[in-house]
Amino acid sequence: MDWIISDELGLTVGHLVGWGAAGAMIIGGIAPYIPQYRQIKKTQDAEGFSLYVCLTLLIANTLRILFWFGKRYEIPLLLQSIVMNVTMFIMIHLCVNVRKKNQIIRARERIFTDMDRKYFWAWTDFQSYVDCMLVFSVLGAAITYLLIEVSPFVEFIGFLAVFTEAMLGAPQIIKNHQNKSTEGMSVSMVIMWTCGDVFKTAYYVIREAPTQFWVCGGLQVMLDIVILLQVWWFRHNTAAARRLRRGD
Question: Which of 173, 175, 180, 176 is CA-nearest to residue 240?
Answer without folding.
Answer: 180
